[in-house]
Protein backbone atom coordinates (compact mmCIF):
# COMPACT_ATOMS: atom_id res chain seq x y z
CA UNK A 1 0.00 0.00 0.00
CA UNK A 2 1.65 3.18 -1.15
CA UNK A 3 -0.17 6.48 -0.85
CA UNK A 4 -3.89 5.72 -1.04
CA UNK A 5 -4.84 9.38 -0.76
CA UNK A 6 -6.52 8.45 2.51
CA UNK A 7 -4.24 10.48 4.70
CA UNK A 8 -1.42 12.98 4.68
CA UNK A 9 0.64 10.28 6.39
CA UNK A 10 2.05 7.39 4.44
CA UNK A 11 1.02 4.32 6.41
CA UNK A 12 -1.80 2.74 8.35
CA UNK A 13 -0.66 0.92 11.50
CA UNK A 14 -2.10 -1.44 14.10
CA UNK A 15 0.03 -1.45 17.24
CA UNK A 16 -0.73 -3.15 20.51
CA UNK A 17 -0.40 -6.11 22.81
CA UNK A 18 -2.64 -9.03 23.66
CA UNK A 19 -3.00 -12.17 25.78
CA UNK A 20 -0.73 -14.02 23.33
CA UNK A 21 2.49 -12.51 24.67
CA UNK A 22 1.44 -10.20 27.53
CA UNK A 23 0.20 -11.63 30.82
CA UNK A 24 -2.60 -10.01 32.81
CA UNK A 25 -0.23 -7.80 34.81
CA UNK A 26 1.44 -6.47 31.68
CA UNK A 27 -1.91 -5.93 29.93
CA UNK A 28 -3.00 -4.05 33.00
CA UNK A 29 -0.06 -1.67 32.68
CA UNK A 30 -1.17 -0.76 29.16
CA UNK A 31 -4.94 -0.74 29.74
CA UNK A 32 -6.91 2.38 28.87
CA UNK A 33 -9.86 3.46 30.97
CA UNK A 34 -12.34 6.13 29.86
CA UNK A 35 -10.28 9.07 31.12
CA UNK A 36 -6.97 7.89 29.66
CA UNK A 37 -8.61 7.07 26.31
CA UNK A 38 -9.96 10.62 26.07
CA UNK A 39 -6.57 12.03 27.05
CA UNK A 40 -4.88 9.88 24.38
CA UNK A 41 -7.29 11.07 21.67
CA UNK A 42 -6.83 14.71 22.65
CA UNK A 43 -3.05 14.31 22.58
CA UNK A 44 -3.29 12.63 19.18
CA UNK A 45 -5.19 15.63 17.80
CA UNK A 46 -2.64 18.01 19.28
CA UNK A 47 0.15 15.98 17.66
CA UNK A 48 -1.51 16.22 14.24
CA UNK A 49 -2.74 12.62 13.99
CA UNK A 50 -5.76 12.71 11.69
CA UNK A 51 -7.28 9.28 12.30
CA UNK A 52 -6.95 7.03 15.36
CA UNK A 53 -9.06 4.30 16.99
CA UNK A 54 -8.09 3.08 20.47
CA UNK A 55 -9.47 -0.16 21.95
CA UNK A 56 -8.80 -1.64 25.36
CA UNK A 57 -10.37 -4.86 26.64
CA UNK A 58 -9.41 -7.50 29.18
CA UNK A 59 -7.47 -9.34 26.44
CA UNK A 60 -5.81 -6.56 24.43
CA UNK A 61 -5.01 -2.88 24.03
CA UNK A 62 -4.62 -1.63 20.46
CA UNK A 63 -4.30 1.57 18.45
CA UNK A 64 -5.28 1.70 14.77
CA UNK A 65 -4.19 4.83 12.98
CA UNK A 66 -2.11 6.72 10.45
CA UNK A 67 1.43 7.83 11.24
CA UNK A 68 4.71 8.61 9.57
CA UNK A 69 6.28 6.05 11.92
CA UNK A 70 4.71 3.57 14.38
CA UNK A 71 6.64 5.12 17.27
CA UNK A 72 4.23 8.08 17.12
CA UNK A 73 1.42 5.69 18.14
CA UNK A 74 3.57 3.73 20.61
CA UNK A 75 4.51 6.98 22.33
CA UNK A 76 0.85 8.00 22.58
CA UNK A 77 -0.01 4.69 24.24
CA UNK A 78 2.90 4.72 26.68
CA UNK A 79 2.36 8.34 27.70
CA UNK A 80 -1.28 7.64 28.57
CA UNK A 81 -0.80 4.34 30.42
CA UNK A 82 1.59 3.00 33.03
CA UNK A 83 3.55 0.95 30.50
CA UNK A 84 6.97 1.91 29.17
CA UNK A 85 8.35 1.76 25.64
CA UNK A 86 10.80 -0.94 26.75
CA UNK A 87 7.97 -3.09 28.15
CA UNK A 88 5.93 -2.53 25.02
CA UNK A 89 8.76 -3.72 22.80
CA UNK A 90 8.99 -6.98 24.77
CA UNK A 91 5.39 -8.07 24.22
CA UNK A 92 3.94 -5.95 21.41
CA UNK A 93 3.11 -6.34 17.75
CA UNK A 94 3.17 -3.78 14.96
CA UNK A 95 1.29 -4.32 11.70
CA UNK A 96 1.51 -2.02 8.70
CA UNK A 97 -0.92 -1.33 5.86
CA UNK A 98 -2.30 -4.62 4.43
CA UNK A 99 -1.20 -6.60 7.49
CA UNK A 100 -2.86 -4.01 9.77
CA UNK A 101 -6.10 -4.29 7.81
CA UNK A 102 -6.03 -8.10 8.01
CA UNK A 103 -5.31 -7.94 11.75
CA UNK A 104 -8.36 -5.75 12.40
CA UNK A 105 -10.56 -8.17 10.44
CA UNK A 106 -9.30 -11.15 12.48
CA UNK A 107 -9.71 -9.33 15.79
CA UNK A 108 -13.20 -8.05 14.98
CA UNK A 109 -14.31 -11.47 13.72
CA UNK A 110 -13.38 -13.38 16.87
CA UNK A 111 -10.56 -15.33 15.20
CA UNK A 112 -7.89 -13.65 17.33
CA UNK A 113 -9.86 -13.84 20.59
CA UNK A 114 -8.58 -15.62 23.67
CA UNK A 115 -11.66 -17.81 23.44
CA UNK A 116 -12.20 -18.61 19.75
CA UNK A 117 -15.39 -17.05 18.44
CA UNK A 118 -15.71 -14.42 21.19
CA UNK A 119 -17.59 -11.59 19.47
CA UNK A 120 -17.62 -9.15 22.39
CA UNK A 121 -14.66 -7.29 20.84
CA UNK A 122 -16.74 -6.04 17.89
CA UNK A 123 -18.97 -3.91 20.10
CA UNK A 124 -15.81 -2.45 21.65
CA UNK A 125 -14.48 -1.60 18.18
CA UNK A 126 -17.82 0.05 17.31
CA UNK A 127 -17.87 2.22 20.44
CA UNK A 128 -14.17 3.10 19.99
CA UNK A 129 -14.85 4.21 16.41
CA UNK A 130 -17.84 6.29 17.54
CA UNK A 131 -15.67 8.01 20.13
CA UNK A 132 -12.95 8.73 17.55
CA UNK A 133 -15.53 10.14 15.14
CA UNK A 134 -16.95 12.35 17.88
CA UNK A 135 -13.46 13.79 18.38
CA UNK A 136 -12.83 14.25 14.65
CA UNK A 137 -10.33 11.38 14.48
CA UNK A 138 -12.01 9.02 12.01
CA UNK A 139 -11.11 9.60 8.37
CA UNK A 140 -13.00 7.94 5.44
CA UNK A 141 -10.48 5.07 5.27
CA UNK A 142 -10.84 4.13 8.96
CA UNK A 143 -14.62 4.51 8.97
CA UNK A 144 -15.01 2.35 5.86
CA UNK A 145 -12.63 -0.27 7.31
CA UNK A 146 -14.49 -0.44 10.64
CA UNK A 147 -17.79 -0.87 8.79
CA UNK A 148 -16.29 -3.66 6.66
CA UNK A 149 -15.03 -5.45 9.79
CA UNK A 150 -18.47 -5.13 11.38
CA UNK A 151 -20.02 -6.61 8.23
CA UNK A 152 -17.59 -9.56 8.25
CA UNK A 153 -18.18 -10.17 11.96
CA UNK A 154 -21.95 -10.18 11.46
CA UNK A 155 -21.74 -12.61 8.55
CA UNK A 156 -19.39 -14.99 10.41
CA UNK A 157 -21.71 -15.03 13.40
CA UNK A 158 -24.77 -15.69 11.21
CA UNK A 159 -23.27 -17.99 8.57
CA UNK A 160 -20.97 -20.21 10.68
CA UNK A 161 -21.16 -22.02 14.03
CA UNK A 162 -17.87 -20.63 15.28
CA UNK A 163 -19.62 -19.02 18.25
CA UNK A 164 -21.27 -22.24 19.47
CA UNK A 165 -20.63 -22.94 23.16
CA UNK A 166 -18.58 -20.89 25.61
CA UNK A 167 -17.26 -17.98 23.61
CA UNK A 168 -16.66 -15.29 26.22
CA UNK A 169 -14.92 -14.81 29.53
CA UNK A 170 -18.27 -14.11 31.19
CA UNK A 171 -19.66 -17.46 30.03
CA UNK A 172 -16.40 -19.25 30.84
CA UNK A 173 -16.62 -17.93 34.42
CA UNK A 174 -20.08 -19.44 34.85
CA UNK A 175 -18.85 -22.69 33.31
CA UNK A 176 -15.97 -22.75 35.79
CA UNK A 177 -18.40 -22.30 38.69
CA UNK A 178 -20.52 -25.18 37.39
CA UNK A 179 -17.48 -27.43 37.06
CA UNK A 180 -15.99 -26.64 40.47
CA UNK A 181 -18.83 -25.76 42.85
CA UNK A 182 -21.47 -28.19 44.07
CA UNK A 183 -25.08 -27.07 44.54
CA UNK A 184 -24.48 -23.78 42.72
CA UNK A 185 -28.11 -22.73 42.99
CA UNK A 186 -27.81 -22.70 46.79
CA UNK A 187 -24.63 -20.62 47.02
CA UNK A 188 -24.47 -16.92 47.87
CA UNK A 189 -22.96 -15.14 44.85
CA UNK A 190 -21.68 -11.57 45.11
CA UNK A 191 -21.02 -9.70 41.86
CA UNK A 192 -18.84 -6.63 42.39
CA UNK A 193 -18.78 -4.37 39.32
CA UNK A 194 -21.50 -4.01 36.70
CA UNK A 195 -19.61 -2.92 33.57
CA UNK A 196 -20.02 -4.87 30.35
CA UNK A 197 -18.32 -8.07 31.57
CA UNK A 198 -20.19 -7.78 34.87
CA UNK A 199 -23.53 -7.40 33.08
CA UNK A 200 -22.85 -10.36 30.78
CA UNK A 201 -21.70 -12.52 33.69
CA UNK A 202 -24.81 -11.59 35.64
CA UNK A 203 -27.04 -12.55 32.73
CA UNK A 204 -25.25 -15.90 32.31
CA UNK A 205 -25.51 -16.58 36.05
CA UNK A 206 -29.24 -15.95 36.09
CA UNK A 207 -29.83 -17.93 32.90
CA UNK A 208 -27.75 -21.01 33.75
CA UNK A 209 -27.62 -21.37 37.56
CA UNK A 210 -31.22 -20.63 38.60
CA UNK A 211 -29.63 -19.05 41.65
CA UNK A 212 -31.86 -16.81 43.77
CA UNK A 213 -29.02 -15.59 45.99
CA UNK A 214 -27.16 -13.17 43.71
CA UNK A 215 -26.23 -9.75 45.12
CA UNK A 216 -24.87 -6.84 43.10
CA UNK A 217 -22.58 -4.08 44.31
CA UNK A 218 -21.25 -1.23 42.20
CA UNK A 219 -19.57 2.04 43.15
CA UNK A 220 -22.37 3.79 41.24
CA UNK A 221 -25.45 2.18 42.74
CA UNK A 222 -27.97 3.24 40.09
CA UNK A 223 -26.05 1.25 37.42
CA UNK A 224 -26.37 -1.89 39.53
CA UNK A 225 -30.06 -1.18 40.16
CA UNK A 226 -30.78 -1.05 36.42
CA UNK A 227 -29.35 -4.56 35.98
CA UNK A 228 -30.91 -5.84 39.20
CA UNK A 229 -34.34 -4.66 38.06
CA UNK A 230 -34.01 -6.62 34.85
CA UNK A 231 -33.25 -9.87 36.70
CA UNK A 232 -35.00 -9.20 40.03
CA UNK A 233 -31.75 -9.29 42.06
CA UNK A 234 -30.63 -7.66 45.31
CA UNK A 235 -28.47 -4.52 45.26
CA UNK A 236 -26.35 -3.35 48.18
CA UNK A 237 -24.41 -0.13 48.76
CA UNK A 238 -20.68 -0.04 48.10
CA UNK A 239 -20.25 0.68 51.83
CA UNK A 240 -21.70 -2.79 52.54
CA UNK A 241 -18.99 -4.61 50.53
CA UNK A 242 -17.09 -6.00 53.53
CA UNK A 243 -20.29 -7.15 55.23
CA UNK A 244 -21.56 -8.86 52.05
CA UNK A 245 -18.20 -10.61 51.61
CA UNK A 246 -18.75 -12.45 54.91
CA UNK A 247 -21.97 -13.93 53.48
CA UNK A 248 -20.58 -14.82 50.05
CA UNK A 249 -19.54 -18.28 48.83
CA UNK A 250 -18.53 -16.92 45.40
CA UNK A 251 -17.21 -13.45 44.63
CA UNK A 252 -17.02 -12.26 41.02
CA UNK A 253 -15.03 -9.06 40.55
CA UNK A 254 -15.53 -7.15 37.30
CA UNK A 255 -14.74 -3.56 38.22
CA UNK A 256 -12.92 -1.12 35.96
CA UNK A 257 -10.54 0.17 38.62
CA UNK A 258 -6.87 0.75 37.85
CA UNK A 259 -5.86 -0.58 41.31
CA UNK A 260 -6.98 -3.66 43.33
CA UNK A 261 -10.34 -3.16 45.01
CA UNK A 262 -10.22 -6.43 46.97
CA UNK A 263 -7.35 -7.48 49.26
CA UNK A 264 -6.91 -9.81 52.24
CA UNK A 265 -7.68 -7.08 54.80
CA UNK A 266 -11.26 -6.72 53.58
CA UNK A 267 -12.01 -10.45 53.92
CA UNK A 268 -13.05 -11.26 57.50
CA UNK A 269 -14.90 -14.55 57.04
CA UNK A 270 -13.10 -17.86 57.60
CA UNK A 271 -15.41 -19.92 55.36
CA UNK A 272 -14.29 -20.98 51.86
CA UNK A 273 -14.58 -18.26 49.25
CA UNK A 274 -14.08 -18.67 45.52
CA UNK A 275 -12.97 -15.40 43.87
CA UNK A 276 -13.10 -14.92 40.11
CA UNK A 277 -11.26 -11.78 38.98
CA UNK A 278 -12.49 -10.80 35.51
CA UNK A 279 -10.74 -7.42 35.51
CA UNK A 280 -7.80 -5.91 33.62
CA UNK A 281 -5.85 -4.54 35.39
CA UNK A 282 -6.31 -7.17 38.13
CA UNK A 283 -8.73 -5.88 40.76
CA UNK A 284 -7.99 -8.57 43.35
CA UNK A 285 -4.68 -8.32 45.17
CA UNK A 286 -2.57 -11.47 45.06
CA UNK A 287 -2.23 -11.27 48.86
CA UNK A 288 -5.68 -12.90 49.22
CA UNK A 289 -3.91 -16.17 48.41
CA UNK A 290 -2.27 -15.94 51.84
CA UNK A 291 -5.68 -16.77 53.32
CA UNK A 292 -6.15 -20.57 53.33
CA UNK A 293 -9.90 -20.40 52.68
CA UNK A 294 -9.52 -18.40 49.45
CA UNK A 295 -9.39 -19.78 45.90
CA UNK A 296 -8.46 -17.07 43.41
CA UNK A 297 -8.99 -17.54 39.67
CA UNK A 298 -8.08 -14.87 37.14
CA UNK A 299 -9.59 -14.48 33.68
CA UNK A 300 -6.46 -15.79 31.95
CA UNK A 301 -7.06 -19.12 33.71
CA UNK A 302 -10.73 -19.04 32.72
CA UNK A 303 -9.80 -18.40 29.10
CA UNK A 304 -7.72 -21.57 29.03
CA UNK A 305 -10.76 -23.66 29.82
CA UNK A 306 -11.84 -25.62 26.77
CA UNK A 307 -15.27 -27.12 26.36
CA UNK A 308 -16.36 -30.00 24.19
CA UNK A 309 -17.41 -27.65 21.39
CA UNK A 310 -13.99 -26.03 20.89
CA UNK A 311 -12.81 -28.54 18.30
CA UNK A 312 -16.13 -28.21 16.48
CA UNK A 313 -15.70 -24.42 16.42
CA UNK A 314 -12.18 -24.77 14.99
CA UNK A 315 -13.66 -26.57 12.00
CA UNK A 316 -15.45 -23.34 11.04
CA UNK A 317 -12.27 -21.23 10.86
CA UNK A 318 -11.83 -21.77 7.06
CA UNK A 319 -15.41 -20.60 6.43
CA UNK A 320 -14.85 -17.55 8.61
CA UNK A 321 -11.59 -16.75 6.82
CA UNK A 322 -13.33 -17.07 3.43
CA UNK A 323 -15.94 -14.52 4.52
CA UNK A 324 -13.17 -12.18 5.69
CA UNK A 325 -11.41 -12.46 2.34
CA UNK A 326 -14.64 -11.71 0.49
CA UNK A 327 -15.44 -8.60 2.54
CA UNK A 328 -11.79 -7.52 2.51
CA UNK A 329 -11.76 -7.82 -1.29
CA UNK A 330 -14.71 -5.41 -1.51
CA UNK A 331 -12.91 -3.02 0.82
CA UNK A 332 -9.72 -3.22 -1.26
CA UNK A 333 -11.71 -2.50 -4.43
CA UNK A 334 -13.12 0.62 -2.80
CA UNK A 335 -9.59 1.50 -1.69
CA UNK A 336 -8.23 1.18 -5.22
CA UNK A 337 -11.03 3.40 -6.50
CA UNK A 338 -10.19 6.00 -3.85
CA UNK A 339 -6.58 5.75 -4.90
CA UNK A 340 -7.17 7.05 -8.41
CA UNK A 341 -10.30 9.15 -7.74
CA UNK A 342 -8.32 12.43 -7.25
CA UNK A 343 -6.52 11.92 -10.59
CA UNK A 344 -9.78 11.19 -12.45
CA UNK A 345 -11.30 14.28 -10.85
CA UNK A 346 -8.29 16.36 -11.91
CA UNK A 347 -8.46 14.89 -15.43
CA UNK A 348 -12.13 15.85 -15.67
CA UNK A 349 -11.29 19.42 -14.62
CA UNK A 350 -8.54 19.58 -17.25
CA UNK A 351 -10.84 18.29 -20.01
CA UNK A 352 -13.45 20.82 -18.94
CA UNK A 353 -10.82 23.54 -19.35
CA UNK A 354 -10.14 22.30 -22.90
CA UNK A 355 -13.87 22.21 -23.67
CA UNK A 356 -14.54 25.70 -22.33
CA UNK A 357 -11.65 27.12 -24.36
CA UNK A 358 -12.87 25.41 -27.53
CA UNK A 359 -16.47 26.45 -26.95
CA UNK A 360 -15.35 30.03 -26.51
CA UNK A 361 -13.42 29.85 -29.81
CA UNK A 362 -16.37 28.36 -31.71
CA UNK A 363 -18.75 30.86 -30.14
CA UNK A 364 -16.72 33.71 -31.68
CA UNK A 365 -16.46 32.01 -35.06
CA UNK A 366 -20.04 30.85 -35.61
CA UNK A 367 -23.00 33.19 -35.84
CA UNK A 368 -25.63 30.47 -35.22
CA UNK A 369 -23.62 28.70 -32.51
CA UNK A 370 -25.90 26.38 -30.50
CA UNK A 371 -24.69 26.92 -26.92
CA UNK A 372 -26.78 24.29 -25.13
CA UNK A 373 -26.18 21.55 -27.70
CA UNK A 374 -22.43 22.18 -27.76
CA UNK A 375 -22.22 22.06 -23.95
CA UNK A 376 -24.21 18.80 -23.83
CA UNK A 377 -21.95 17.15 -26.44
CA UNK A 378 -18.81 18.33 -24.60
CA UNK A 379 -20.12 17.07 -21.27
CA UNK A 380 -20.94 13.63 -22.72
CA UNK A 381 -17.56 13.29 -24.44
CA UNK A 382 -15.71 14.26 -21.23
CA UNK A 383 -17.72 11.69 -19.24
CA UNK A 384 -16.93 8.93 -21.78
CA UNK A 385 -13.21 9.76 -21.74
CA UNK A 386 -12.98 9.78 -17.93
CA UNK A 387 -15.02 6.54 -17.74
CA UNK A 388 -12.54 4.87 -20.12
CA UNK A 389 -9.61 5.96 -17.96
CA UNK A 390 -11.39 4.77 -14.80
CA UNK A 391 -12.08 1.32 -16.33
CA UNK A 392 -8.45 1.10 -17.41
CA UNK A 393 -7.23 1.90 -13.88
CA UNK A 394 -9.54 -0.76 -12.40
CA UNK A 395 -8.06 -3.43 -14.68
CA UNK A 396 -6.05 -5.86 -12.55
CA UNK A 397 -3.68 -6.46 -15.47
CA UNK A 398 -2.29 -2.91 -15.42
CA UNK A 399 -0.01 -1.11 -13.01
CA UNK A 400 -2.25 1.52 -11.42
CA UNK A 401 0.68 3.58 -10.11
CA UNK A 402 2.40 3.71 -13.52
CA UNK A 403 -0.87 4.56 -15.29
CA UNK A 404 -1.63 7.33 -12.80
CA UNK A 405 1.82 8.83 -13.29
CA UNK A 406 1.43 8.73 -17.09
CA UNK A 407 -2.02 10.39 -16.97
CA UNK A 408 -0.67 13.11 -14.67
CA UNK A 409 2.31 13.66 -16.95
CA UNK A 410 0.40 13.74 -20.25
CA UNK A 411 -2.33 16.06 -18.98
CA UNK A 412 -0.05 18.02 -16.58
CA UNK A 413 -2.29 17.27 -13.59
CA UNK A 414 0.23 17.57 -10.74
CA UNK A 415 -1.15 20.86 -9.52
CA UNK A 416 -4.72 19.45 -9.45
CA UNK A 417 -4.11 16.13 -7.72
CA UNK A 418 -1.67 17.21 -5.04
CA UNK A 419 -3.19 16.73 -1.55
CA UNK A 420 -6.43 15.55 -3.11
TrEMBL record:
E.C. no: 1.2.1.70
Binding positions for NADP(+) per the UniProt entry: 193-198
Active site: 58 (nucleophile)
Boundaries of every Tetrapyrrole biosynthesis glutamyl-tRNA reductase dimerisation domain copy: 320-413
Domain Quinate/shikimate 5-dehydrogenase/glutamyl-tRNA reductase stretches: 180-305
Keyword terms, alphabetized: NADP, Oxidoreductase, Porphyrin biosynthesis
Residues engaged in binding substrate: 57-60, 113, 118-120, 124
Pathway connected to this protein: Porphyrin-containing compound metabolism; protoporphyrin-IX biosynthesis; 5-aminolevulinate from L-glutamyl-tRNA(Glu): step 1/2
A molecular-function term among this protein's GO annotations: glutamyl-tRNA reductase activity
Catalytic reactions of this protein: (S)-4-amino-5-oxopentanoate + tRNA(Glu) + NADP(+) = L-glutamyl-tRNA(Glu) + NADPH + H(+)
Domain notes: Possesses an unusual extended V-shaped dimeric structure with each monomer consisting of three distinct domains arranged along a curved 'spinal' alpha-helix. The N-terminal catalytic domain specifically recognizes the glutamate moiety of the substrate. The second domain is the NADPH-binding domain, and the third C-terminal domain is responsible for dimerization.
Similarity comment text for this entry: Belongs to the glutamyl-tRNA reductase family.
Name listed for the protein in its UniProt record: Glutamyl-tRNA reductase
Native source organism of the sequence: Gaetbulibacter aestuarii
Gene: hemA
Amino acid sequence: MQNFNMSRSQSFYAIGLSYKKADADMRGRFSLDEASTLALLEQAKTNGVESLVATSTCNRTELYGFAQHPFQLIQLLCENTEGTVEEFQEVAYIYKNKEAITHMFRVGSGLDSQILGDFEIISQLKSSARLSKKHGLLNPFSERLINAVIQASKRIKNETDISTGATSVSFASVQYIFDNVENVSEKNILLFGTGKIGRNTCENLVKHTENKHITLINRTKDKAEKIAGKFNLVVKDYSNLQEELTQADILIVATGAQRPTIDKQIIQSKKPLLILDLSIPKNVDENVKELPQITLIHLDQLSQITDQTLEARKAHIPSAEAIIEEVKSDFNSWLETRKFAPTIKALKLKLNEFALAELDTQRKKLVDFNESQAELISKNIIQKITNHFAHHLKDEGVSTDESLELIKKVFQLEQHSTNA
